[in-house]
Amino acid sequence: MGSDRGRGMTGTRREGPRDECGVFGIYAPERDVARLTFFALFALQHRGQESAGIAVSDEGQILVFKDVGLVSQVFREDVLRSLTGQMAIGHVRYSTTGSTGWANAQPVIRSRTTGDPLALAHNGNLVNTDELRRHLEARGVALGSSSDTEVIAALLAAHPARDVKEAVSEVIPRLRGAFSAVVVTDGQVIGFRDPYGIRPLVLGRLGDRYCIASETCAFDIIGATPVREILPGEMCWIDESGYHFRQVTPPLRDSLCAFEFIYFARPDSVMRAQTLHDARCRMGRQLAQESPVEADLVIPVPDTGVAAAIGFAEESGIPFGTGLVKNRYVGRTFIEPDDSLRRLGIRMKLNPLAADIRGKRLVAVDDSIVRGNTTSQLVNMLFSAGVAEVHLRVSSPPIIYPCFYGIDMANQDEFIAFERTVEQVGEWLGATSLAYLSLEGLLKAIGMGGDGFCTACFSGSYPCAVPEEVRMSKLRFERSAERTR
Q1: In the annotation, is 454 catalytic?
Q2: Active-site residue among 21, 211, 403, 457?
Q3: Is this prediction's pTM over 0.85?
């Protein structure tokens, strides 16, 4: 049997690419699996700040606790003590399909046709959810949320195979899009990844037990070490005898999301045998080679622009400085500033060191620009602080195309670079000059040539075909439901 507990409230929308989701799973009967999962999710908090959840399996019983909020807000000490078991999975979420709210929080729990429960947590976005929902509804399977995660869980639960691994093996080929998922069921934790490998997933070792996570930073915090990445189209399961792999479906064009390297993954995580910090420093060096400028100081837009700014400064010989101070205590808030403060909203997060930058020519390095509203406010704030020049340098190419694989971005006509030249974007932002890292330069900095990455948001080349009906709002299911009431 299984049960859900915990309810919360919805949050507010923010500008820029939204961190998608983070997953974690562990099999360790001798350890406090809920507490280990809590700390792993804490390390993965950057991947989703809307909701958090943990499912524990205790001798065939599965209990899920989830709520809207940050990991530290959702899980109190008394909650963690109540989550006992031999294995667990966890999830942090930012909504990409389905609205924000408790109903779409994860993990999702379902009862199988065999009578056993399973819980599933998922990072990514399916592009054939409509088709799969119609199939399930035609079979009389009830769905209680608008997320594609529940669709995956329902397909697994409805499968007649006694062994969940057999169900996973037959369901994965039916899923199209991006998905890295973890499942907990009686006696095992299963992880699986889409055949394009768009979203990351890695196996780790904790003593003589094993765990699965979106990023290696989740291992560091609990004292685990990476074993290897789970390959595209591969299933990994961990149980009493250790870890096991099975290639469920042939890998297709290896297409790890390039934004993992640019922005999403933590700088201390390791992907493709390199730390993200080192890769981002190389992006900054490549950017300095492609778009040099005469200036007095290189400053990052904290925190995600720091590594690229370091690389830019090292390559250009221009001194690196702070320039902007970030408020470390700004997180999710439900309190709106009044009209006079709303115009100064960026100062809730950033404030210039006016005495250090006044009269100087600045190179301000950021990881990306989406709509440009925050960036224009930043440029204006720097000039108001007495800066002589603001040269914006961006360590990714212009974002022109929307993502359908698990990153919540603006609609295409909201992208500042859509149907604008770089010069026009720079003028709109009010910068002295603007330059982006080229796509070729990005791939060179990552060190993988042109292979192995999804760059659809820059190039429009989608590794997995996207049906036309998917190119709509992420709230399409809620709106459809409203029309039928």
Answers
A1: no
A2: 21
A3: yes
